[in-house]
Amino acid sequence: MTARETLAVARLGGRIYWRDKQALTATVLTSLGLGIGLPVLMDRVRAGDPSVVAAQLLGMLAVVLTLSGFNQSAVSLTARRDQLVLKRLRATGLSDGAVLGGELLNIMVQGVLIALVTTVAVVNLTSAPAPRDPILFAVFVVLGAAVITLLGAAWTVVIPRAEVAAPMSIPFFMIAGLGAGAFGPMGQLLPGWLTTALDLLPTAAVVKVGRATFADGTFADDLQAAAVPLLILTVWAAIALLVISRWFRWEARRS
Amino acid sequence: MEAIQVDGLRKSYGDFEAVREISFSVARGEIFALLGRNGAGKSTTMEVLAGFQRPDGGTVRVLGLDPVKDRAKVRKSTGIMLQEAGFFPDLTVAQTVDSWRQLVPAARPRAEALELTGLTGKAGTKVRQLSGGEKRRLDLALATLGRPDLLFLDEPTTGMDPEARKATWDVVTDLAAHGTTVLLTTHYLEEAQRLASRMAIMDRGAIVAAGGMAETLAAQTGRVAFELPDGVEIHDLPVEATAVEGGTVICRVPDPDVAAQTLLGWAGERGLRLRGLEVRTATLEDLFLDLASKENA
Which residues of A touch B69 (CB under 8 A)? Predict the structure, then answer.
């Protein structure tokens, strides 16, 4: 796999992405609508409480990353698998790593862009403050998007056909949003074991670091807060890579 | 070194044995046809040779390399026209070729690729608006983009009109004349007979006939057919009839020209006319039908 080949596939994927009305509606418009709309609404309901709006923003980032990373990855790769586009790409002489890496890089970049646009919009349209440590915040958005996109590719292993990719992936953004507080303090109503499980999600790792970068503290505090989330993301990435390397299907099943 | 060497290849999908210990080789610069009915194992064989499927047994070498282990190296010298493979429907033909040019080393210029496959006039058309035959031509344009040493063509002219089919034959013939090795699978026996110098016929995963096209057909019986004249009994004919179908006598003979001359001489002596006389040497279709009848017997 060469960087040139991977970038070539990513560029092609990006070209297709921005022409695909379905992807634009399901991913870009929905993500931006939810990600910006709910914090703006919260800002009207809870005027004068920037921390609540910031918490809502972080919760929505979990939803946005899941929709634009996990769901888009699962839906897009399943469709390209079933339509034999992946097979055609493999027929070019590109390595498997370049084909899949390019596809995922494109989806990840779109996810990061949507997450960053959401953040900038919410910070500018509401009373939510900007993150104190924007670089660490951005780094974890990128890492989170990468891992979540990889997990979407791994999820295609259990998706039998393209038609059911979307319905089979939708529950994950609800779960991610619930765990990250995107829908309000519903997490407080959940049993303890479930709260602990939700805290282990990759989206929760991004949100946890996000909270640290929005709160008062020092760079050392931020690094300390980032240690466990980094470990969680690493474990999820390893799981995704293992599943992909063993069971990823390049074309529809024959028997 | 052969371009393709297959020895004892086996491949199954679950309990279904798609390919059963087949062996054949394809010389460099040769057009080799792999023929057979649906489900005979042709496409599976091609998928193994292209490195998409791992063989269950036997050895396969493509340009001297293992197509699975050395897939990236093999692919850089091969072009593949798959029987089915998707496109991005919202891209135009020109955008599709341009996109693929970024993925193929030393690719042909777009104009050359489109001209080669007769798609210049469709450059601005979206792929979703192309006919089935035009999509096959776009497929061929992508397969030949990297000027491959070896070209896999899986049912290349399916869905094409006769003119496009002939144009595609010309492209394939021209590529082979310039040294490209071609492995072709097709349902169209005329296509195989026209293009290939050697062939193998597969049935139920095994090769049931193989060899040079001309020699194999020469070894087959030819066919003379005519309407039985009024008042003539079948046993009166100077050539043994193989069958009578709706008043038409069919004679399967090693040399159909000699048989026809004998029949015409016999009819002339008796003042008879042999209406609907047809004389032809063996075709691949005859070979197919022979194989099928042997199988049914």
Answer: none
The pLDDT of B266-277, averaged and rounded, is: 91
Is residue B104 within 8 A of residue B146, CB to CB? The reply is yes
The residue with greater pLDDT, B218 or B69, is: B69
Nearest-CA neighbor of A68 among A39, A35, A102, A101?
Answer: A35
Q: Quick check: A254 and B13 CB within 8 A? A: yes
Tokens (6 digits) for B241: 């009839």
- Which of B13, B102, B146 lies at the smallest CB-CB distance from A12? B102
Q: Annotate A129-149 with DSSP letters as a single string.
A: PPPSSHHHHHHHHHHHHHHHH
Average of per-residue pLDDT across B260-270: 92
Q: Which residue in chain A is spatially nearest to B75 when comparing CA positions?
A: A93
Cβ–Cβ < 8 Å for B276, B225: yes
Beta bridge partners of A11: none
In order, the DSSP letters of A170-222 are HHHHHHHHHHHTTTSGGGGGS-HHHHHHHHTSHHHHHHHHHHHHHSS--HHHH
Domain ranges (residues) in chain A: 3-247
Tell me the chain A residues in contact with residue B105 when contact means C-beta distances shorter than 8 Å: 93
| Residue B292 clears pLDDT 70, i.e. is over it | no
Q: Token digits for A42?
A: 């919260």
Of A183 and B55, the one with more pLDDT: B55
Q: Is A166 on the interface with B (CB under 8 A)?
A: no
**Strand order from edge to edge, sheet including B150-154:** B78-81, B150-154, B181-185, B31-36, B198-203, B206-212
What pLDDT digit, counting tens, does each position of A108-143 carry?
999 999 999 999 999 999 999 999 999 999 999 999
B204/chain A closest Cα distance in angstroms: 17
Partner-chain contact A83 B86, CB within 8 Å: yes
Q: How far apart are CA A153 and CA A171, in angstroms?
A: 16
When the pLDDT of each residue in chain A is averaged and rounded to a whole number, the result is 91
Q: Does B244 touch chain A (CB under 8 A)?
A: no
Residue B87: list chain A partners with CB under 8 A: 85, 88
